[in-house]
Each structure stands twice: as C-alpha cells, then as structure tokens.
Design goal:
Mean pLDDT: 86
Number of strands: 9
Radius of gyration: 23 Å
Helix content: 40-55%
Strand content: 15-25%
Strand order of the largest sheet: 3-4-5-6
Number of domains: 2
Distance between the termini: 27 Å
Order of helices and strands: EEEHHHHEEEEEEH
Low-confidence stretches: none
Structural class: alpha+beta
Amino acid sequence: MKASGKIYPYIVVLQNTQKQKVRIMGLMMCLMGMLILTYRGLGPGGLRMNLLFAGTTCLLTIWNFIEMRKGGKIASKYALLVISAGLLLLPPFQGLGLLFLLMALIEKKALSQVEIGFSDDHIRFNSFRKKDHAWAEMQQVILKDGILTMDFQDNRLLQLEVDDEDDEDYDADEDEFNAWCKERIVAKKRS
C-alpha cells in the first residue's frame, strides 16, 4: 500500500467476507436489467435497440455464471454498464440507469480487500474511506493466528480476520510485527 508517496513497512490484508454477497447482488441486478430491457424491446412501442442491450447483457451474465461455476473471479460491472447505457440512452426508465451505473462503479471497491498500513507515525485503514489512527490511540496491537487485534486507549477492541492467502509479498513474521508495533506504542507513550 502506498499513499501520498509513503510506503508502509507493514501491510495487513483483511478478509473480505462480503465478496459473495456483492457478486450475487451484481448477478441479480444483471437479471433484473435484462428483464427491463427485454420488456422495453418487446413491449408496445418498444425500440429493438433495447434487445441488443439485453442480448449483450445476457451474454456477459452467462459468462459470469460460467466463471463462477469454475471458481473464477466474476465482474458484473461490464454487464451493469451495458444495462446502464441502455437505460440512460433509450426512454423510458432513464432514472433507473443511474442505479445500475452506481452499482457498476462501486462494485470494484466493494470486492477489493481492505488493507491496513502500519507506518512509524500512524495506522491507515484503506477501505471505502481512508481512516488514520495515531499510535498514541493504541494500547496494544497484536497479530496472532490470523487475527489482528487492536486495543485502543478508549477501551475499544477491534479484532479482524487476516487474509494471508492472496499475496506472499504481505507475509511477515508475527513476532517481528508484534515487536515492531510494541516499539511504536512505547515510543509514542514516552513522547
């Protein structure tokens, strides 16, 4: 993780437990979009261009189902963008196009891993909103058995599951990380 030119000595990647829900929601929205576009194409006074958008969405959604069955990564954002374009460009239901566009834009962020960067002066949560915590706010930070525990001075306790399967670059010795964190907390208490 690199933010504003700063490289973090330690990065902890958390498990994203919402991935399956986001993917299923994306597929459901694709099916709903296909139905809307098909209705607009076949309905009274419907434009046949809607059927082109529905057919393209159908192909992309079938491809996503096949990828999901193989255990691969799926991205509904392309199908959602096609639906959004179809709904925004062709009347009626143009307002619904914004909903599909919004879903396509947030899908990537919702599927990404949450990273926590540990630097000498702060801890940064890299999620939807970047959130910084000073070491002075911490009483203890421990990584043990795949669980990151952050004990705050104000008696808040945060325990998060670590995802250590994704990237070997993130692998670090737990004892080394815990000792480094303890040094930062002690240093901030002295100053």
